[in-house]
Amino acid sequence: STLQRHSFPTRRSSDLLHNDGLYLGASTALNVVAAKELAVKLGKGSRVVTILCDGAYRCGLVLACLRMGS
Fold it and tell me: Which pLDDT does position 21 carry in this prediction?
Protein backbone atom coordinates (compact mmCIF):
# COMPACT_ATOMS: atom_id res chain seq x y z
CA SER A 1 0.00 0.00 0.00
CA THR A 2 0.99 3.63 -0.33
CA LEU A 3 1.30 4.06 3.45
CA GLN A 4 3.71 1.15 3.72
CA ARG A 5 6.07 2.80 1.21
CA HIS A 6 6.51 5.87 3.40
CA SER A 7 8.50 6.21 6.57
CA PHE A 8 7.04 5.82 10.04
CA PRO A 9 7.37 9.58 10.77
CA THR A 10 5.57 10.48 7.55
CA ARG A 11 2.75 8.06 8.31
CA ARG A 12 2.43 9.53 11.81
CA SER A 13 2.34 13.05 10.31
CA SER A 14 -0.44 11.89 8.02
CA ASP A 15 -2.34 10.33 10.93
CA LEU A 16 -2.06 13.50 13.02
CA LEU A 17 -3.23 15.65 10.10
CA HIS A 18 -6.24 13.56 9.23
CA ASN A 19 -7.28 12.41 12.70
CA ASP A 20 -6.43 15.49 14.78
CA GLY A 21 -6.13 18.35 12.28
CA LEU A 22 -2.47 18.93 13.17
CA TYR A 23 -0.23 19.84 10.18
CA LEU A 24 3.08 18.65 11.64
CA GLY A 25 6.44 17.64 10.24
CA ALA A 26 8.06 14.28 10.81
CA SER A 27 10.19 15.26 13.82
CA THR A 28 7.24 16.81 15.61
CA ALA A 29 5.09 13.80 14.79
CA LEU A 30 7.68 11.61 16.52
CA ASN A 31 7.64 13.98 19.51
CA VAL A 32 3.87 13.53 19.75
CA VAL A 33 4.13 9.74 19.48
CA ALA A 34 6.78 9.66 22.22
CA ALA A 35 4.77 12.03 24.45
CA LYS A 36 1.67 9.88 24.07
CA GLU A 37 3.61 6.70 24.90
CA LEU A 38 5.14 8.37 27.96
CA ALA A 39 1.74 9.62 29.12
CA VAL A 40 0.34 6.10 28.92
CA LYS A 41 3.36 4.75 30.82
CA LEU A 42 3.12 7.41 33.57
CA GLY A 43 -0.59 6.84 34.03
CA LYS A 44 -3.67 8.86 34.82
CA GLY A 45 -3.13 12.26 36.40
CA SER A 46 0.36 12.76 34.97
CA ARG A 47 1.22 15.50 32.49
CA VAL A 48 3.57 15.35 29.54
CA VAL A 49 4.63 18.39 27.54
CA THR A 50 6.26 18.47 24.12
CA ILE A 51 7.08 21.21 21.65
CA LEU A 52 5.49 21.19 18.21
CA CYS A 53 8.65 22.45 16.54
CA ASP A 54 7.93 22.13 12.81
CA GLY A 55 5.14 22.09 10.31
CA ALA A 56 4.69 19.71 7.41
CA TYR A 57 5.73 22.27 4.82
CA ARG A 58 8.41 20.08 3.27
CA CYS A 59 6.30 16.93 3.16
CA GLY A 60 2.93 18.50 2.38
CA LEU A 61 2.68 16.91 -1.07
CA VAL A 62 3.40 13.46 0.37
CA LEU A 63 0.72 13.95 3.01
CA ALA A 64 -1.77 15.03 0.34
CA CYS A 65 -0.94 11.96 -1.74
CA LEU A 66 -1.34 9.69 1.28
CA ARG A 67 -4.76 11.19 1.91
CA MET A 68 -5.84 10.61 -1.69
CA GLY A 69 -4.43 7.07 -1.68
CA SER A 70 -1.97 7.73 -4.51
Answer: 84
